[in-house]
Amino acid sequence: MLQSFHMPIFRGLEGFRADWLRSDIPAGLSIAAVGLPSAIAYPAIAGLPPETGIYASIVAPVAYALFGPSRLLVVGPDAGTMAVLAAVIGTVIAAQPAGTSADPVAIASALALGVGAFYFAARLLRLGVLASFLSRPILVGFFAGVSISILVGQIGRFTGVRIESDGLLPPIAEIIRKSALIHWPTLLFGLAMFALLWIVKATRLPVPGPVVVVVVSVILSAIFNFEAAGIRVVGDLPTGLPSFSLDAFSQMPMDRIVLGSAAVFLISFGSSIVAARSFGARSGEEVDANRELIGLGAANIAPGLFGSFPIAVSDSRTAINLAVGGRSQAAGLVSAVTLMAALLFLNDALRILPIPALAAILAAAAISLIDVSELRKIWHISRMEFVFALIAMFGAISFGVLNGVIVAIAATLIYLLRKTMFPKDTLLGRIAGRDGFYDMQRFPEARGIPGIAICLVQGNLLFYNADYISIRLRAIADGLPAETRWFILDASAIAHIDSTGAAALDAVQANLSGRGIAFGVAHLNAEVTELLARAGVVDGIGAGKFFDDTEDALRAARLGEESDRPLAGGHQ
């Protein structure tokens, strides 16, 4: 196991050539330009100071460039992950002993380390399959709910009013009650910046909207002295990277840290792999979920060591990297150096950045999380999956983002169970002039075979669906013509049967035997055949009634014979 846990150092720079810098340097500068506004704005979602976002945007890409497998993905602060982080930080603070002070930055750093540890543990156990645990519809619905929560969270920043309630409707009701306290210059400026974002997007200017908003708002703040006018600004930012200490961790409720890290990890990895696969499809780059666990683990450990918070693959930064023509992770390194220079030399400009401008950027980012076209597509493809997307969405809105994670997971499990608890079954028949067997429900021209029923069950036979399948098979037998003498189960779609399923098959055989109908099984794999042999079901049905394929079973049934092939496990 440990041999598989190799660190893929510099995989993102594999094959690097000096001439790639002509593409990677402009790409890195563009990534930094797009990343700086979100780096300053996103920490506000979790109540963290702006500099933590810049720290994460510097150290996370460096760590990913060292250990990440992809040449093109860019990591950084992510709105969805920040929303989950905000909920987790709230639960950790609530669990602190009375009289102790809670440092949100220290908690966020601890969670980043915890998330990184979960990534490494998942890689050690080769749990890249977790990437598929949250289905696309569930993630689309969940992030739509998260976006609405983020939008509601900007009410205070847009209005200048302190909002103390949580949830969806209570903050709206609170701002209505406190309408007299609204600072109208703050509101008007925030709405103006929000409109500017959409104008830039609609006119398809080459400069990203958040960059335009930051530059314009800083210039206006300097000219009109917004701070003196009562419009809140970012304030002083540290000019260096923070030192790291483990002392603050000793006073934290570690059970909440571990559980919170697991929740952030699940959402971070789920959204990261969805983004990675999406961009991989565009660029032709293969995405290995297990290798990404190492890169994303390192990219989360690094912010934890430098006073920041968990990160994920950034859609906007990766899109810019691809659009400008980045060739390797050198682009991420260039963006990190650029942001470090901004922190050192643009401190005075960033200090007067108005808070309403950040609210506008966050609101626009939140709206971009609502993938209406994908929801329409899900509705068109599967009504059931659309329902679960809505469940995930309203879970995040109604129960809070952290509880929404649990609701999303529960919805996924319910969906998976629902799909496997009631597997489809159908009778197979022949079509004149064609070979093979056909679903008689899908092909009206297919005809049953006189005296012989062939039934296909499209799912595994396990403890939670064994009774249902047994009842269905007996119901099918009830509707068979009186002259039916053979009932053949086509088991080509049955990959697994457990002891409960074996008992159900035994009961079906007994029921058919009481009707004078022989029971045969075709296409059953060797592993399941061995299990049925150990359970005594093979002896009950008769070893000669297990066939390699449906044609063999049909031929034997017509001749009134049994199979002479040896069964797995030595049964004959």
UniProtKB/TrEMBL annotation:
CDD domains to which the protein is assigned, alphabetical: STAS_SulP_like_sulfate_transporter
Its membrane topology: Multi-pass membrane protein
Cell location: Membrane
Annotated keywords: Membrane, Transmembrane, Transmembrane helix
Listed Pfam families: STAS, Sulfate_transp
Transmembrane parts of this sequence: 27-48, 54-74, 81-99, 105-125, 137-160, 180-199, 211-234, 254-276, 330-346, 352-372, 384-417
Domain (STAS) ranges: 442-557
GO BP terms, alphabetized: transmembrane transport
GO CC list: membrane
UniProt cross-references to Gene3D superfamilies, sorted A to Z: STAS domain (3.30.750.24)
Protein name per Swiss-Prot or TrEMBL: Transmembrane sulfate transporter
Lineage: Bacteria, Pseudomonadati, Pseudomonadota, Alphaproteobacteria, Hyphomicrobiales
